[in-house]
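Anyone? Bumping this.
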Amino acid sequence: MSAAAVATGRRRGVWRGRIFVALLLLSMAVGFLALGTLFFDVLRKGVAYVDPVLLTNPPSSDPDIAGARPAILATLYLGVLLILFTVPIGVGTAIYLEEYADRNRWYNRLLELNIQNLAAVPSIVYGILGLAFLVRGLGLGRVLLAGALILTLLVLPTVIIAAREAIRAVPGSIREGAYALGATQWQVISRQVLPAAIPGIATGSILALARAIGETAPLILIGALTYISFNPTVLGPFTALPVQIYNWTKLPDEKFKALAAAAIIVLLIMVLLLNAGAIWLRNRYQKRW
Amino acid sequence: MGIRPQSRVLLLVLAAGLLASATAACGRSDSSSDGTNAATNGGSSLSGRIEADGSSTVGPFVTAAAEDFQAQNSGVQVTVGISGTGGGFERFCAGETDLSDASRPIKEDEEVPVCQENGIDYTEFQVANDGIAVVTNKENDWATCLTVEQLAKIWGPDSKVDNWNQVDPSFPDQKLTLAGPGTDSGTFDFFTGVINGEEDASRTDYQATEDDNVTVQAVSGDKGGLGYFGLSYFEQNQDTLNDVEVDGGSGCVAPTSETVQDGSYTPLSRPLFVYVKNTSLQKPEVAAFMKYILDNQAQIAEKAAFVPMTDEQAQKAESDFTAATG
């Protein structure tokens, strides 16, 4: 190969590299611009309505005194219940699948396939399931607990998949080292694998939670209300922040659209804080090998 | 390049904090909003929970009533859902709710049998009036008045009309685009019933939506647009839409509170109802709430942008109440 040919090939490689970087920047810009536009639009419309009234008053037909206290509280309750339900079940399933299940057994493979498929089921379908099975079948009624259980089912696949990835990322040498020192399987998992996997599990769980508290469709189906002026209870009627936002956007008065934008800002702040929490947890427990 | 992980948390917290403080600085533009809604806690001894569900049109009326009622009766908790008139009756006849909000009377052939089967006896109360406004684009200067026949020609189930000059030869050559409520809506049931002569009979190639604000957008954004919805949506969007006068046989009448109330805006005026389960009406808190609605219907209607009942209608509702509560 002549020196000239090498130089041409090298130049071509440099150009290809530059085009590649440009394409990468472009793809990043798409997501960033979409988010930015949404963000500034909501901020512009809703900022004037984010005030103590919004946080402390119940909804009203008068936009000047309307707030979202019951909805905000219900969304917080839903979040707490969701963590309580999804983390133990999700992590438990993940540990079983990663550490105990024999992948040569057909039922374990079927289980895995199902979990992955469930992650793609539209949320409204979970709502229908909830209405038929929880609300009417079990006679739970249109209560907050039913909403939390439905959202749990909705995000469980995501949590399981994230937790499995985290557990799988723990190097095999750690397990083998522990076994070599005479640890039982329980000791290996509880003292070595799980602590090491906590950052990944926490990130996955909180991202799933952030998705769940933005859900509207299944909650509307199982009977989240339009108007509720008192604080929600676990076994009582409820609404949620996304449902409140949805209702406000449907009303004729322009002011309610501004209120909806304000409520979106509150929801955004809640999600941002959750994500910050996830990152903090991850960094706190992160281990490097 | 990379930001250290610790500072990423900081950044996020900062972002959330900034958002919060940026927004907290400027309060709601209207300063009358100190949250004192009505007389602080009238010392009534009533307590209990009242569940209402049904029409999204009537929902805001019952919500407005519930707010004021609860301000005077702090022990009573009223909840309102908007499953739609049909969805509301489904729950009502299953015995799940106390009140069912409806923008049309209960259906004799479909819904009444379900109620009977489940042993749900009920009483119907008219609570307000509503008009349906037919609206066009602000630039539409030709269709100021349409007859019921013309509307039927446009919206009929077999209609192929797609240009304004097919509606009336004097109208310009302008593409006609339609928007309106979808089939779950009581407004749709009512409009098709009185315009097309048969409930639910409508052409289907229009932009159907359960959100009337979408119809507002569709019509205000298209010169040849035509749509219909409840009068309150028109009143809120007068600067972007024209209303069409409707000729029901005795001349062109514009939709206003007055013409809806005195019945001259025909046939697109309708009564709005609340159905109450009779066993619930025996409970003092439900009876008190219903009484409150009927006694204050005019103020509630004004607050929630509805057309109040006429004296005659109000008297009938009061006597229905007396008969039902004995």
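Late reply, but here is one note on the structure posted above: Chain A has two domains: 3-49, 52-285.
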